[in-house]
């Protein structure tokens, strides 16, 4: 299992990133450069946002593309305008299918497919329409309109700014349109649109547009991640809220089912917390909650998720973790402690552990229920105990049952 060790020289990198990029951390910068390490929640929200915007843009293009046929009829001679009209109708059909036939998805792969489809249609339109125009005898207004066709890749590259994308995605999605501009130069330059100097200028401008559009997309992504982080975390403890935790549990449990991987749930309830609030007040209770959440968080791996399930209840989602692995984390937490009560006595907790395979759980709700029941068993047995997958009980005066590394 991954232990979530810090990267080498992480503190130095964080300081360097902060000096160059303001309040960004190394992890946040990585999330803006690459998309593979995004949290499931961010990936899900981003996929839905990308697909919804793709459908919106495709719907607008489906409405506007055929309207230009009237301009082509007035500007170009037969059969050129008819050939362009056929291309426009085909593009309109492709845009309409994307707008009304592609469902909004929570999968980033589906979002990528939708964006590729959206960009592929005008790119293919440009590659087919350009040779038709470049080998036609044009003059006057027809030359000006034909020149406008040549700038279609610029419009599409600039359109990347509409989407919350990473730096790598911006480079990958802009590359085909830049290559299409290069390919157009070899069709012949009867219109004298692509001399070598003008081609170099066009490519330079495309690169600048792609950079600016990608930076705009990265800015959107950073803002979206900040909103998701703010809306999904409990303000007092920094843990995920229960609503978001249920969503993450559904995602992680579904992944475990598809890959037949273990996933553990740890249910933690702070002992005698009501008496702490009654005796010392809610301000001290809040301080104890913050200390407990910090103590729990220090014992988790990068892939684990901590959720504030109730007032003093926390649920840990531990993907790719069996019962032994979950117990290792819990014992580490018990060793390091989860803070002190106002009277100086260490804060304790009752813990229940459940695991998908060991408990034969068909859904995440059943898994949480099992862990919850075992937490209550630990509390009824005297508190400050851990109830394992098989119902065995561990307390401070009992051995660790041979848990590796303890």
Description:
- By secondary structure, the protein is α+β, with helices and mostly antiparallel strands.
- The chain folds into two domains: about 40-230; about 240-395, Alpha-Beta Plaits (2-Layer Sandwich).
- About 60% of the residues lie in helices and about 5% in strands.
- It has 16 helices and six strands.
- Helix 3 (about 40-65) packs antiparallel against helix 5 (about 80-100), helix 3 (about 40-65) runs parallel beside helix 6 (about 110-135) and helix 12 packs antiparallel against helix 13 (about 280-295).
- The longest helix is centred in the middle third of the chain and has 37 residues, at about 195-230.
- The chain starts with 9 loop residues before the first helix and ends in a 12-residue tail after the last strand.
- The model is unreliable at about 1-5, about 190-195 and about 395-405 (pLDDT under 50).
